[in-house]
Amino acid sequence: MRILPAKASSIVIVAAALTLTVALPHFFRHLASPEKLGFFVVLLLGIWGVAGAAVSYLSTRPLPVLLLDYSCFLPDSEHRLSLEVCEYFGLHSRLFSDESADFMRHIYRKSGLGEETYAPPYFFQPDQRARFEYAIVEADQGIFSSVESLLAKTSVPPERISAVVAACSMFSPAPSLSSRLVNRFRGFPADVKTFNLSGMGCSAGTVAIDLASRLLRTMPGSYVLIVVTEATGLSWYYGDNRHMLVTNCIFRVGSAAALLTNDPTARHVAKFELKKTLRTHHGADDSAYNSAIQADDGVGAIGVALTKDLVRVAGSFLRAHISTLAPRVLPISELLRYAWRVAQSAVRQEWKASAAQVPDFTAAFEHICIHSGGKAIIDAVSRVMGFDERVVEPARMCLHRFGNTSSSLVFYELSYFEAKGRVRAGDRLWMLAFGTGFKACSVVLSALRDANMGSDCPWKKCIHRYPLKVGRIDAIRK
What we know:
Layout: H1 6-29, H2 37-60, E1 65-72, E2 80-81, H3 83-93, H4 98-109, E3 117-118, H5 132-154, E4 161-167, H6 177-184, E5 193-197, H7 204-216, E6 223-229, H8 242-250, E7 255-261, E8 272-281, H9 286-289, E9 292-296, E10 302-306, H10 309-329, H11 332-347, H12 351-356, E11 367-369, H13 375-385, H14 389-402, H15 409-419, E12 428-435, E13 439-447, H16 470-477
Parallel strand pairs: 4-5, 4-6, 11-12
Antiparallel strand pairs: 1-7, 1-8, 2-3, 6-7, 8-13, 9-10, 12-13
């Protein structure tokens, strides 16, 4: 049933008050003059006509979508993956040639990852072989832990959740991960809608938020649970294709869960309001489509190839993405400044400079969660957008502490802002992620209250060490 917003109720009360204080006194005052009663009818119809139109508008427009809360999975410390553990695994497993092991060591040293990222469970098994059962364990650990923590701190029981959206790019078992959640957390209604996203790459987290918001448009007063993870164990590549070996060096274990709702009564406890989402797909371009792709290496080994085109593609199609986003989020003053700079470059016939111009998105957002998929990607986004190190600091620190956790990385980055106590009520936040396809997805949030570091924050025991200086990160790697 459609929930009548508080503003609509107020309009009805005001209309009733006007009827009692203005229209009815006029009626009784001119009761003996029938020719003047027509004005009463017009006045009454005017009051309730305007009130009815206002109530109809408020009752049919989409309810605001709120991000009630979220939770990030923190694996056990025994599963930390340092360079030493990587080297031991490469030698002990005997699955890599000496040349491939040396190449991965070189990539890892300059990747921007620290010594405390997390490996999949099979790394620590006696046979050190990726198996389906270990992938299930990895997925279950992440999604069950994050959902359990989320439901506990929001006090929202499964009975109130109308839809579940699970996202995992490289692992899609049957029954689906969303069905595993319904089976694990008993109490979901029989008509709960479940969705499972796969193959979406690192953008799956923001895509899941977009999907949840669209579902809520048709389900007033409902809750949607989104769970994003990546089962990295079955995605490790054991061949000699260097484009595929890169993924072994940067992808790490991570999961997150979030609860979205359009129940107006939850506004006072929600953390953020979802303002906008934008998804752009550039798969019609072959270089974009093939820039990150799962394939056979030609000798029977399956891996995800991150080609040299990836950084160029990310920078190029980021421009296309922000050209669509800018008019929707930037203040008029910044749009005018941007137009003026472009016009100046065009007048001087500096066509390259004109094409390189981008608006200042820091004029629209206090906080920006940049896709921290790799050091080169962060550098490319920073270069294209003209961001300084202050803006990209959270992305670099998230990459250093957790690695590329794929679809959940934007939530780990968001938790960095909260752990630092930087988010204040009214602040605007932009999440930007890229995915295979090639996709770009933006999520715009507005903080409803001051944020603080929760008891389940993944940064709780290490935030005092951050931020590290970029030079220091490189020194640690060497």
